[in-house]
TrEMBL record:
It comes from the Bacteria. Residues 1-93 form the BLUF domain. Transmembrane segments: none annotated. InterPro entries: Acylphosphatase-like_dom_sf, BLUF_domain. The lineage of its organism: Bacteria, Pseudomonadati, Pseudomonadota, Alphaproteobacteria, Rhodospirillales. GO terms for molecular function: blue light photoreceptor activity; FAD binding. This is BLUF domain-containing protein. It comes from Azospirillum doebereinerae. Pfam families: BLUF.
């Protein structure tokens, strides 16, 4: 299993509705390829994690690199393991970071575009952002039935929560 984390800058800022549509299209393609992942965007900076068979993830990433909607694409983490997927709940989902509660605690100083963009080059920071946004999105699945169409795996068990039925 390959877990690949990358960051990029938007060539042109896209509205949330366009980003959501792209995510839904990607979810269908990723499901067929056996790839899972999660994407966040903040003020034109993208962070994304992709997980799956190495050859499949690398082919998908090659297409992402040549996509004209991205620029300054850089790999932050490229790890092969035999472990279970960390971001395996969806074939793809999108976390817009629009919830003010996200920007508390360790992320309070990074809400501004410049601060976030600078810090987004750190693999450790990117994984913390992706993990927190992913966890929040997992909780929201109970509230929005449309999200269920993009679920690939079982809901993760978060600390202090009972096992889902």
């Amino acid at each position: 299993m390959l877990t690949l984390v990358y960051r990029s800058d938007a060539a042109v800022l896209l509205p949330h509705s366009t980003l959501s549509d792209l995510c839904f299209q990607s979810a269908a393609k990723n499901r067929r390829l056996g790839i899972t992942g999660f994407l966040v965007e903040h003020e034109g900076t993208f962070l994304q994690v992709l997980e799956g068979e190495p050859r499949d993830v690398e082919r998908l990433f090659d297409r992402i690199v040549t996509d004209g909607r991205h620029q300054n694409v850089s790999i932050l983490s490229h790890e092969i393991s035999r472990d279970e997927r960390t971001f395996g709940f969806w074939s793809m989902n999108f976390g817009p970071l629009s919830d003010p509660d996200f920007w508390t605690g360790e992320f309070a100083d990074f809400r501004g575009r410049k601060e976030f963009r600078i810090k987004s080059h750190s693999a450790n920071f990117a994984l913390r952002v992706l993990t927190r946004a992913y966890t929040h999105a997992c909780i929201l699945t109970d509230a929005d039935p449309v999200i269920g169409d993009y679920v690939r795996g079982k809901r993760p068990v978060l600390a202090g929560q009972p096992e889902p039925v």
